[in-house]
Every structure is written in structure tokens, then in C-alpha cells.
Predict the 3D structure of the following.
Amino acid sequence: MGSSLGTGLDYLLTTSATSALITLVDLPGLTAVGCARIAQSQAGVAAATFQGERGHPVKFSREHWAGIIEIAHGDEGARAYLRGREDVELVEIADVASGADLDYNIE
């Protein structure tokens, strides 16, 4: 997970992209409307919430990519980068999407 995230962000540094929307692949209830709501945030870091519980996707503006690349290795993605940050805008999307992760919420 970490190497995929780092590789993707490293590539984006060669483009004119100004932000990246990061999500997991096993969230079948995540919708385009929910992703758009996060992507439209003007914050440098914005994270989805589902009834107040933080989840994916997370948007990072370009100035955060180098810090994430530095710590994203193995099974560790951007969680450590986000830990303790007070500048994350939380954006509620439970009205248009589900954050159910198939790894943990098999029903």
C-alpha cells in the first residue's frame, strides 16, 4: 500500500496536478458524488467522514506529497502523516456514500 501511494504521488510531482484524491479499492459504497465533495474542498488536507467517523477518500494538496512519500512504505500509507494533524478538514459524505470497507465489514 505504501509503495503504491508513494509511486503515484512521485509520478504526480512530474505533472501540473495540484491535489490528489486518495482512496482504497475495497469501498463499494463510495460514490462519485462523495469523491467530488472531498475533491472540491479548498483545504490542503480533507478527509471523508461517515456519521462523524473518519474514512476515505482523503485529498492532499501538492505541498503535502513529499512528506507522504517520505513515510509511505510497506503497509503504511498516509495514516502516520495524518496522525495528530489539526489542519484536516472533515467532510461528511454519509448522505451520499458508504465507508464500509470489505476487509472489515463483510456482511
In short: The first helix runs from residue 2 to 12. The first strand starts at residue 19 and ends at 22.
